[in-house]
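Bug #77: duplicate submission created two jobs. Keeping one. Sequence:
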Amino acid sequence: MVPSKCFAPAGQIHKALIQKSTKGLTAEQYVRGMRKVYQNNTSTTTIAIQKRFLENLQKQSLTCILSPTLVNGLPSKGLFCYGFWSIQLVCDSINDSGFTIGTLVSNNQGMMKYRYHPDAIENQIVTAFGGETYQIWKKQILGNLDDLRYLIEVVKDFMRLSGVQPLTSVSCCKRSEVLCRRVGLPVVDGIVILEA
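Kept job's structure:
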């Protein structure tokens, strides 16, 4: 998932999305258009991955990196990582705020790499190493959903302590929506809500 151009209380999410972001489009048209953009952006992006890394993922300890740039007294960006998961918050302005959930796909010279689009991840792994390696990686990732649930709670605590308002994100695809629901995040018309 990637940030949407919407920042409003969860109860007003649908109305706010249409007013601020869709410019006359329905929520369904807007989500469909954004998903096309995400697919185009991620299908051409590849990162160096190694088969042995994918088949033997190592859980990452809890990490939080906050941008030194402040917007309204808050960090403009925050990256939270735990297990095989990451959540990136973007709070650049009231009109450009949101979040992205990513999953671990690579360790390039000690730098963990996370990706968010399940179709792009599957395509890259299957193309490089075949379906069996993808299934091994996927089993590890989906067997680790409790760590994502924990990370969501850590991020919610940060939001609560920092006064961050509810954030939204247009889900990148139906598979992403299913994952968000599995870990307890509400999804309304393809839009995922993260609130403290």
